[in-house]
Amino acid sequence: MIIKVDHLTKYYKIHQKEPGFMGSLRSLVNRKYYDARAVEDVSFTIDEGELVGFIGPNGAGKTTTLKCLSGLLYPTSGNVEVLGFNPFERKHDFLKKISLVMGQKNQLWWDLPAMDSFLLNKEIYEVSDSSYKKTIGELIDLLDVKDIVNVQVRKLSLGQRMKCELIAALIHEPKVLFLDEPTIGLDVVMQQNLRDFVKEYNKKFDATIILTSHYMRDVEQLCKRIIMIDHGKVLYDGNLSEIVKKYATHKELRIVFQKPIEKRELARLGKITEMNGTRVVISVERTKSNHVAAEILKKYDIEDFNIEEAGIEEIIRDVFSNKNK
Amino acid sequence: MFSQTRINNLMRLLRIFLLHFQYLLSHPSRSFVFIYTYTFLSLLYLAFIRGVFLQNGGDLGGWTLSSVSSYYFLIIVAPALLMTHPEHPVLRDDIENGELSGRLLKPFSYYWQRFFHELPYRLFQGLIATIIFIVLSVLFNNYIEFRLSVLQVMLIVIMLPLAYMLSFTFKMILAITGLWTTDIRGARELVEILIIIFAGFIVPVNLLPGILENLAYFLPFAYMIYFPVVAVQGQLSVNALMSVISVQILWLSILYLLFRKVWKKGLMRFTDLGH
Known about the structure:
The complex is a heterodimer of chains A (325) and B (275).
Chain A: E1 3-16, H1 20-29, E2 32-46, E3 51-55, H2 62-70, E4 77-82, H3 92-95, E5 98-102, H4 114-124, H5 129-143, H6 158-170, E6 176-180, H7 188-205, E7 208-212, H8 216-222, E8 225-230, E9 233-239, H9 240-247, E10 250-257, H10 263-267, E11 271-276, E12 279-285, H11 289-299, E13 302-309, H12 312-324
Parallel strand pairs in A: 3-7, 3-8, 5-6, 6-7
Antiparallel strand pairs in A: 1-2, 1-4, 8-9, 10-12, 10-13, 11-12
Chain B: H1 4-25, H2 29-56, H3 65-82, H4 87-96, H5 100-104, H6 110-139, H7 150-176, H8 185-198, H9 210-218, H10 226-232, H11 238-269
Helix pairs in contact in B: 1-6, 2-3, 2-6, 3-6, 3-10, 4-7, 7-11
């Protein structure tokens, strides 16, 4: 087992001020604080080589958990163990084996080419010349950045910079990689490139990776297992495929009729989510889907017919919104 | 004498230093602005004190017009070389802009990361200031006479890095108080004023009024700038140099322990919220 999180809780002390001038005056003499619950009683374990998606809405506690795992934050209570280390002690042996990549943060020197930042990391992480040469060559090839590593970082596009950030974070070949929104702000092509790279890195180095992302496509393509978190609590921890069985209450019937059908007539079969001429999408309860499908096929002239599971993104959105009701 | 591991480690630190020097060279103009400020202020103070000398004539508290002129020329070099400013990047980049997270995750102590970031600026600005010092000495026809024994030179060589470390550690403590407060600009300004007075920027410390002079010897600031300057001018005997070095070591030990304590407590409060 590489990562063990046991009843992790993290509160932030937040200063609260009433609005207006009087509020400001009151706050001067009597500052009020409250404990904001970022993570509460979170427990999970992750094995070597696993690629786990950590998903949840904004403020769910994903980044806080990653920061506790990487040793940036001191937990309010509970235990965290990564590679047998207590992360918060930030021992150099521990830091040499992990990396945290935050999509919106920059660790490269702005006014120099990325190559100089790579060299600095090589020295800081005490990577040998031969190992550096081999790793940097592989990473540059994998991410296809040969032409830009000698260009001043400030002149690079966001996607190019993100690729260079990844290289800087991986020069020491970390065994555990925390990726916090690595595809944020990137165009779809660049997102796909990064996903391919993460998959390849996971396979090649047998690295353990935790990925947080708002893009469900990242998680769908990369992670077999997901941990869903909301309001600091784990809602689901298991296979991505299982979540469909567990939470998908409806199926979608996608039908193309030979001639237009009245909306009122179809509405009694289920919830019409899309209707465009003869093309109709009806959402029906899972248990009734076969029965409804048979009825449609029997009653109408059909040109095309499909029964589909609801999209992962939709299911997860439903899980979070039902939880919040 | 040195093991291979130690040599490798020293070479690694040298490479880290050189990489930081490259970074400085990517924006050298910033350093010139700082130097012009020091030069202007120093010449302004000199203009005032020259007036005092010309009015009263002779010597003042052991200073002659020539030695006091050299003092102010050296006051351009000393802060450029020894007065560190890690508080600017620590507060602006690391704490306010959230770059501290990335630095904390490096297997290299934060104190030394910032040390290597600062050192090239001091050396580069020190070099420019030395050129300005030479030019001013020629222009004013006021040459400093180095009448120092070998032992004095050796002690000065020890004193200068201690002065640097003293200023660096003090400013690091000041900077990381930013982990507690939302804005430490006020405190920073106050400290700058204290340094200007007690490190000997306005007048040599022994010309300060009685109580301020005593206070200056008690506080650490004079050991960062004033004493290194008068030591280079040859005004300190071997015994005086040794006692200054002893006080520097004492202050450095106190400040370093304080830094460790403040840093440890600060990290417990560190939230990196909003980044």
